[in-house]
Design a protein that fits this description.
CATH class: Alpha Beta
Largest sheet: 7 strands, mixed
Shape: globular
Radius of gyration: 16 Å
Order of helices and strands: HEHEEEHEHEHHE
Strand order of the largest sheet: 3-2-1-4-5-7-6
Helix content: 25-40%
Distance between the termini: 36 Å
Length: 193
């Protein structure tokens, strides 16, 4: 699914003025290129990177649960449409390891508006937890700075992917998203000292 330009701008606005930014789940590298154009040292991590090699950024093969980055090597980390696909405990530990104290973590992802037993949305959607569950998982090593409701952007991303012919949400996945009344949020966190 194509990512929202509005969400991308909000992610960029949440980042520190300069430094090293790791885009975990960088996909095709759209954000990496924009980060590099705006002066950040951009690093991408993806389990199956499809990013063309460019001198503006570096890309490593890896997963959020075991990042191929050094301790404290990032001033900021971005996860866009990734946290719901990862094992949260391992991912949070890795994010805290690679992000320097005082660094910025930006998470943009689905969340469930209806609590209780959550259906597994499948491999493309993952587990969709409530906003409170997501915040509780990240609260140990991170301090929440802000949350913004971005469900309108999610609708626009889905609509654009349908128009582009790239939508590939199965009937089961649509049913799961409807059952939990899926929303899309943007969280900005600071790494505790």
């Amino acid at each position: 699914m194509k990512k929202s330009p509005e969400i991308t701008e909000k992610i960029l606005a949440a980042l520190p003025a300069c430094g090293t930014v790791a885009d975990v789940g960088c996909g095709s590298g759209e954000l990496l290129l924009e980060l590099a154009r705006r002066g950040w040292k951009a690093i991408g991590v993806d389990p199956s990177p499809t990013v063309p090699e460019r001198p503006e950024y570096r890309v490593f093969r890896g997963r959020a649960e075991q990042l191929p980055l050094s301790d404290g090597s990032a001033d900021a980390v971005v996860l866009q449409c990734v946290f719901s696909l990862c094992k949260p405990e391992e991912t949070v530990r890795e994010l805290a390891r690679v992000l320097r104290p005082g660094g910025t973590l930006v998470v943009a992802d689905l969340y469930a508006r209806i609590g209780g037993e959550q259906p597994d949305g499948g491999p493309d959607i993952g587990r969709v937890e409530t906003r409170e569950q997501i915040e509780a998982q990240l609260a140990g090593p991170f301090r929440l700075e802000s949350f913004s409701e971005e469900s309108e952007a999610l609708l626009m991303m889905v609509a654009q992917s349908i128009l582009d012919g790239t939508a590939c949400v199965s009937r089961e996945e649509r049913k799961a998203l409807k059952q939990i009344s899926a929303g899309y949020g943007l969280w900005v966190w600071t790494r505790n000292a």
